[in-house]
Specification:
about 375 residues, Rhopdopsin 7-helix transmembrane proteins, 4 strands, about 70% helix, glycoprotein, prostaglandin F receptor activity, membrane, PglndnF_rcpt
Length: about 375
């Protein structure tokens, strides 16, 4: 069966023929249900871990990172909840947009939600990378200037920027359109009537790619700085373990974002500037499915790449691969602990004169009576 639909883009009428047998090539609604359920549970668990950690480090340098990480997890959670619910409603209504959305109100909301919850994680990931780069390379400036109040404002501005990009097509009277699979709404792709129809999808893709590039650049600088300080054995640099924990999480977030969002962002640019064929529709839907896994994998970065988990993995690896190294490590720790206890037992306080010389021990000793 096939059904013909007509879309009015403002400058011309485009007749499109949708094949309802497209379900042979797309994933079933079961995949959407599983993706939504796993995403909500994963983000809930990650949010619980981050809120607990934020209370511990509220007055420390890690608090800013945890604030942005919590904002990212909340965004992913709402994205799965809202977009997943809309997808399930569309499938339940048999994708008949003429019946359940004759005024295209739901499609506008669906498209706005897709753009906002797609762009927000990319922008937040880049902001987190910049914040950690400043915290590692300029710790004094970070602690004195970038206060918690400024971080909360920056988090709100990041969400506001993503929301502005999402509602721009509606303000410019370029509404979102139902895509070829009829299961989601997005920018009009491949049907540009003027420069605005080409500008909006390119703006979304360029901002996403710039966010990924900025994350790669800042994480590279942060990683090199931490490695240099580690190689120099700088004992005056405190909190290095927390820095390494955060940079490991940032690198994982960056890798997940590049793998999940890279194909989709590049496909949008190709679709907007070139003609596409029937096979490209299937590829676009697959790219969207891959992009949704970004919101599923992000919370597991904070669940698995924690200091306690990494320490247990290191000890497990030491048990399996290098028992001799573990024995040497235990011997060094026990030797150091014993030497410290011996030193603390044998040592006694010394008094210093204002000139810096050691004064003799003037402790009054009891003289035995004879």
């Amino acid at each position: 069966m096939s059904s013909n639909r007509t879309s009015v883009t403002g400058c011309k009428v485009v007749a499109r023929s949708f094949n309802t047998t497209f379900s042979r090539t797309e994933l079933s609604v079961t995949a959407s249900v599983v993706s939504m359920s796993v995403g909500i549970l994963s983000n809930t668990l990650a949010l619980f871990i981050l809120v607990k950690a934020y209370r511990r480090f509220r007055l420390k340098s890690k608090a800013s990172f945890l604030l942005f990480a919590s904002g990212l997890v909340v965004t992913d959670f709402l994205g799965h909840l809202i977009n997943g619910s809309l997808v399930l409603y569309v499938y339940r209504s048999h994708k008949d947009w003429k019946v359940f959305d004759p005024q295209h109100v739901l499609c506008r909301f669906f498209g706005t939600s897709m753009v906002f919850f797609g762009l927000s994680p990319l922008l937040l990931g880049s902001v987190m990378a910049v914040e950690r780069c400043i915290g590692v390379t300029r710790p004094l400036y970070h602690s004195t200037t970038l206060t918690s109040h400024h971080m909360k404002k920056l988090l709100g501005l990041t969400w506001l920027l993503a929301l502005l990009v999402a509602i721009l097509p509606i303000l410019a009277h370029r509404p979102y359109q139902v895509q070829h699979s009829q299961s989601w709404c997005f920018f009009p792709l491949g049907e540009a009537c003027d420069w605005l129809d080409l500008f909006f999808p390119l703006l979304f893709s360029v901002l996403g790619l710039l966010a990924l590039f900025l994350s790669i650049l800042c994480n590279t600088v942060t990683g090199i700085t931490l490695l240099r300080s580690k190689l120099r054995s700088d004992r005056h640099c405190k909190g290095t373990s927390h820095h390494f924990e955060m940079i490991c999480q940032l690198l994982a977030i960056m890798l997940v974002s590049c793998v999940c969002w890279g194909p989709f962002l590049v496909s949008i640019i190709l679709w907007s500037t070139q003609d596409h064929h029937q096979r490209a529709n299937v590829q676009m839907l697959l790219a969207v499915r891959i992009a949704t896994w970004n919101q599923i994998l992000d919370p597991w970065v904070y669940i698995l790449l924690r200091k306690a988990v990494l320490k247990k993995l290191f000890l497990l690896n030491a048990n399996c691969c290098s028992p001799r190294l573990q024995t040497l490590y235990k011997w060094n720790c026990s030797t150091l602990k014993g030497s410290m206890q011996t030193t603390a037992t044998l040592s006694r306080p010394e008094c210093f004169s204002p000139e810096g010389h050691v004064m003799p021990d003037t402790t009054v000793k009891a003289v035995p009576h004879t």
